Amino acid sequence: MKNSANRIVNKVILYFGLWLCLVSLNGLAQQSMDSDSPPRIVEFIGNQPMTRVGRPFEVLGVISNPAKIAINLTATLKLPEGIHLEGMTVRSVKLSPDEKVTLRWNLFSDKPQYTEILLEVSNKLDILAASRLPVRFLPKMEKFKASYIPDPQPLKKNSELLVGAHNCPLWEADSYDRWSQILKHPERTPAMGFYAQENPEVADWETKWAAEHGVDFFIYCWYRTEQGGPVKQMLGSALHKALFNSKFQSQMKFTIMWENQTKGKAGVSNEDDLMNNLLPFWMDNYFKRANYLVVDNKPVLFIYRPEFLVDDLGSVENVRTAFDKMRQACRDAGFAGLLLLGEYRYLDPKHLELMKNIGLDNTFAYCWHVQNSPTPQEAIDTQMNDIRTTQKLGILPQVVTVSQAWSGWSDEGSIWKLPPAEFETLLRQAKGFVEKLPKDQLSGRMLLLDNWNEWAEGHYLLPYTENGFGYLDAIRKVFLNAADKHTDLIPEDIGMGPYETSYREWLAKKRGQ
To answer: What is the C-alpha separation between 474 and 483, in angstroms, rounded?
Structure first.
């Protein structure tokens, strides 16, 4: 009996040892698979752009298993002080080969803040993937139902300057890929989310925020797609579908910047094309509208690459003649003429002489190319130096632009950003400079902001995750007679939005949900 019992014990020990070996080998295989085809956090995003203290902020984590074996994982949400959630911070996940899972958490904040949360995916041994997500909680405010967006409440300005913002209308409902750069920079997520610009409500929120913070007009980039015939355009929905059908359109002036940089398509084929196709289209659709920007009874037209018109029309003299004919056509339509501004962001006197010789009234910069990834102070000093240098050259009067940031569409070249406080400093310096210029010139009556909504290129003023309303509040402090304390509404406050429904539907299909 004793020998039989010993044999049974030995077998148990043998089988247990074999089991331990198999477990160990499986662990090694798991480690090997994790190393070769580790799990991925495909997305870690907020399911809304921002919220307020006391309200839930829903977070989505999409985790995938590209390996050829099933894996057991632990997903851990790490939260900073002041952030808590409903449910557990740790989730167990089992994924089959090529399977994806979407995890959801509802976060709450004890105080207004901008902070980061961390998602880690691990096995029993190692952290295999990690991703950070910036989140913003605005000050607490009770929601209320409104039949529509409350009317803008503009305040009296402390200056007679016309303040305009460049508006880049790239965010149409089917332009999903243009948001890919923002997915890499979730701190840039706009307060309206990944919105579709053709919605008139989007235009009304923009008008409300602009009017209440001291922005008088938008300069919409305007794109022609074919030249030499009747006008065909692209990316015009922000104007034709949104602004022109919006409730508050009478409270926001607009103008256009002719984006003529694509040669052979975006310019003009000859003077006849300019005078009989392009100008009549602008006249009927824009110049004659009650909310088009008109100064001294002259429509204001911005041109992105005015030097390209020399090739389009054959010579400097031909461009000057064509501009004179455009001014006369505006006079014939009841205006006092036409103000033409050409874009230039450098300091070459020869180029400025060319712009003067073709008959432009002013130069302006769409943005300032500040090189070498400067500090905020260097970015301020460089811009003000370029502005002063352009003025000292005295070749062509400039309408001053100030830039908030730059990154490029792929984070290329010089990358920099002014925080809101430093942007306020730049605004005050530029305002002081412009107010000393002659008031009988456009240069002394206008200041331009770069940029309202260049989300992918890295310069933007609309409220967004990282700084909330910080940039708009800086503009408000400089140009309006306004106390610091005021309430800025977001769509969620009144039960409106979201304005990214089509984008979210596309994203869900992409996830395979």
So the answer is: 12
Q: Residues 6 or more apart from 179 whose CB is under 8 A from it?
A: 171, 194, 455, 456, 503
Please state, in angstroms and rounded to a whole number, the distance separating the CA atoms of residues 343 and 440.
Answer: 21
Contact 42, 99 (CB under 8 A): no
pTM above 0.85, yes or no: yes
Q: Binning pLDDT at 50, 70 and 90, where does residue 183 land?
A: confident
Picking from 283, 303, 361, 299, the residue whose alpha carbon sits closest to that of residue 336 is: 299
Phi first, then psi, for residue 215 (nearest 5°) are -95, 125
- Residue 104 tokens, joined: 């959801």
**Torsion angle of alpha carbons 212, 215, 217, 220, nearest 10°?**
-110
Q: Where are the alpha helices (DSSP H) in 159-276?
A: 180-184, 200-211, 237, 271-273
Q: Closest Cα to residue 283, out of 322, 353, 319, 231? A: 231
Burial class (CB in 10 A: 0-12, 13-18, 19+), 442: buried
Spell out the domains of the chain, with CATH numbers in brackets: 40-142 (2.60.40.10), 162-503 (3.20.20)
pLDDT tens digits for 319-355?
Answer: 999 999 999 999 999 999 999 999 999 999 999 999 9
Give the residue carrying structure tokens 């009017």: 211
DSSP string, 125-145: S-EEEEEEEEEEEEPP-----
**Beta-carbon neighbour count of residue 23 at 10 Å?**
10
Pairwise CA distance, residues 171 & 242, whole Å: 12
